[in-house]
Specification:
alpha/beta; eight-stranded mixed β-sheet; 14 helices
Length: 442
């Protein structure tokens, strides 16, 4: 163990060990010139300038370059708002074989007090890899039990979790599953039904106690705050969700589970967002009637049933949007390929055009749509004056694999386009003839 821990520390903190100006983010006044600008909310500007000052967008379109500004030529490239991945384990999951780096699944079935923001590792190697594809912001989501924790939306730049935090947090609810958990679930139907019934009873009991806790807290506040609340951290964490002050992320994938989740939410004064919704297309009209937004994905997946068309996972977002459901996209990739978010969106377009899901809809699903669901659309999600300067420049369509991202800005900082993977690429691309070991190796 004494050898494992130092090695682990070096592995997890590897990006922080790099030295030199190419590894450091820089701030100041920037002028992105000769750009095509995809504002998302106000159409496209075919040629213009984006000025960044004090971490915010100061001008968009026809604008003069401020004196002393660092000029970043787009060379005909396009400026996009930073993409938002609405469902990941980024910063919570590092090395699968090392338990010390797994912080997304805590012990216990009801642990909403476990806050993702306290566990996010800013030095994870997945941060620089992910933002190289234009993904600048991600929702770090705990997973596991019935209520595994509180998710946090983070910007992919910063030395500490507090610097990465955007201020948005949401309680996660994995709605009880009424079917099999996968192809290897060999339980009898009776056992499946019993487990689902017990899980729903636990959920109802937990929610009722949380509502009671909220009433006690309200009565205490009305009485001038006399006395102390009992120490029940799980109910204290649920308090904002019960009162509708914090979003409740409800994960449900099978059509039957989505319907039951809608029934359970009916009458509760909560701010809910459905997530996953792999079979959302089957009950899209019911979701639309409930007026709930969804975070769909992963798009790059398999159909949930052998009898379904192979393309149903690709078409799901389009069919939901066609029914009038607000849609955002997530990767929720257990292999940690969050950098592939643009390609999830690209597949949603390629297979969703017949249902009216075009490139603009997909662009909104990874920018302004999640920003609105998370209540941060006044700060991010589009290229508009006054918003945070969280954006990137691409030399083509970011949904296409051949496109390169040439510059990334997060909250006004121009972050380096360097990752462990780019370093390895350059190392082996420029390897020295006749060298039998890597530089510094033995």
């Amino acid at each position: 163990m004494r050898f494992l821990l130092p090695a682990l520390a070096l592995l997890v903190a590897a990006p922080a060990l790099a030295q030199g100006p190419q590894y450091r983010a820089r701030t100041g006044t920037f002028a992105l010139t000769d750009c095509r600008i995809e504002t998302v909310t106000r159409g496209a500007i075919e040629r213009g300038t984006v000025v960044i000052e004090d971490g915010r967008i100061a001008a968009v379109g026809e604008a003069a370059v401020p004196g002393g500004a660092v000029v970043v030529p787009c060379a005909g490239g396009t400026v996009y708002p930073g993409f938002i991945d609405a469902g990941t384990r980024i910063g919570l999951d590092e090395v699968g074989s090392v338990d010390e780096t797994q912080d997304f699944d805590e012990i216990g079935d009801v642990t909403p007090q476990m806050e993702a923001i306290t566990a996010v590792n800013p030095s994870t190697i997945h941060v620089p890899i992910t933002r190289l594809s234009g993904v600048t912001t991600a929702l770090a989501v705990p997973q596991g039990g019935l209520m595994p924790g509180t998710a946090a939306l983070v910007n992919l730049h910063g030395y500490t979790p507090a610097q990465m935090a955007t201020g948005f947090e949401a309680v996660v609810l994995n709605f009880p599953t009424t079917g099999r958990r996968g192809p290897f679930d060999r339980r009898e139907q009776e056992a499946i039904d019993k487990a689902a019934e017990e899980a729903l009873e636990t959920l109802n009991e937990t929610w009722e106690q949380a509502v009671l806790y909220a009433r006690i807290d309200s009565a205490r506040a009305a009485g001038g705050g006399a006395g102390e609340m009992p120490y029940q951290p799980e109910f204290a964490a649920l308090l904002p969700a019960v009162r509708g002050e914090r979003v409740l992320l409800v994960e449900a994938n099978a059509a039957a589970d989505i319907v039951k989740a809608l029934e359970w939410l009916d009458g509760k004064d909560v701010s809910a967002v459905l997530t996953g919704v792999a079979e959302g297309w089957r009950v899209a009209d019911q979701i639309a009637a409930a007026g709930l937004p969804v975070i769909a994905g992963p798009v790059l997946g398999l159909p949930t049933r052998a009898s379904d068309r192979y393309s149903r996972a690709y078409e799901n977002a389009a069919l939901l949007a066609q029914a009038g459901v607000p849609v955002a996209l997530q990767t929720q990739d257990r292999m940690q390929n969050y950098r592939n978010l643009p390609f999830h969106a690209g597949f949603a377009v390629a297979f969703g055009q017949d249902y009216g899901f075009d490139r603009q809809a997909a662009l909104e699903a990874v920018t302004i749509a999640p920003a609105r669901m998370f209540g941060v659309d006044d700060r991010m999600g589009s290229v508009e004056v006054g918003k945070q300067a969280t954006l990137f420049i691409a030399d083509g369509d970011p949904f296409q694999p051949a496109t390169d991202v040439t510059a990334v800005f997060i909250d006004g900082y121009q972050v380096p386009l360097v990752s462990r993977q780019t370093e390895l690429y350059q190392e082996y691309l420029n390897r020295q003839p006749g060298l039998t070991t890597p530089p510094g190796g033995e």
